[in-house]
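Table S5 (text form). Sequence records supplied for joint modeling of the two-component complex.
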Amino acid sequence: MELFEVFIRSRNGLHHKHVGSLHAPDLEVALENARDVYTRRSEGISIWVVRSKDILASNPSEQEALFEPARDKIYRHPTFYNLPDDVKNI
Amino acid sequence: MTMEERFQNRIDQDLKIEPKDWMPEAYRRTLVRQISQHAHSEVVGMLPEGNWLTRAPSLRRKVALLAKVQDEAGHGLYLYSATETLGTPRDETIDDLLAGRAKYSSIFNYPTTSWADIGAIGWLVDGAAILNQVSLTRTSYGPYARAMVRICKEESFHQRQGYEIMLTLCRGSAAQQAMAQDALNRWWWPALMMFGPHDTESTHTEQSMKWKIKRERNDNLRQRFVDMTVPQADYLGITIPDPDLKWNPDRHHYDFGEIDWEEFWKVVKGFGPCNRERLEARRKAHVEGAWIRDAAEAYARRQSEMKKAIA
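The corresponding structure-token record, covering 401 residues in total, follows.
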């Protein structure tokens, strides 16, 4: 049996969200199992299953290298720009 | 700062630990033990209730019990998944159970001899489990905490259906009331034992509290359970089998008698009324279910061969 990750869209308009994993012999059965294991109380209207081994995850030890560069780019946020209070709707 | 200090630092800040994060080996081992025991408890927990599935007194009771047992299978699966994120293959975890190397909650080593036991289990056993599990929604390991959130959402129906069964029996004939009382007599003490030994006796408590794997002490949870449950028993009109049970206005808690720890350790060590029967049932189910696992594998193989042939 292979390991699969399960993603569920709880209702239209929302993203699919990771809910857990399960074992199955193939993708089709993984989808059926996901229905039984993760949507017994109408938690979703759409399911994605992905082989866990097909997911490449970033490494926590590389967190700084990956995410630090964004931190000092405060000009990417609207509050960086000074506007007088008198200017409205912006 | 050493890795270990940095790790503890994160825990102290209430930051969750996720699967690929560095963690001390002992933290990993403790989690694997605790989460897999929890998973096994869900799976073995299906057995005492399964005993009454075919004999539920009405269709309403039967669909509810069936849904509850199915939930427990699901809870076992969420927890096996969480164990797996720590790098322990699921087959290994399940083998540990089948070989008798792993533990599960001792409560499931008691027999369900009457229908009222199904009521008492939902009310008391699920009630005790919910208290423990709610505290574990704040546990430091992310996948375990998330599994607990799902489980807690689903558990509350379990407890309510149990209490409803008790209520129906207690509002019924004298024989039904006696059945309910008898179930309470037999399940009360084992339910209190579910919270584990006194904290002073518990080998894992201190380290687990420091790592925030465990968020509340055994004795605190047990006290909360007693305080919660006594008024519910009063409402049913049945008596908790503890002569020392009484309200303590100074402490604002119920005082209660000492657990029979000899019995507790006996059941933990494998000599409870049903330990052997439960493991045998699990092994039998595993062996008898082998063909369907094999068939699923064979079908998947055939499907992929056919797809290749077409392409």
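Note: Chain B has a mean pLDDT of 96.
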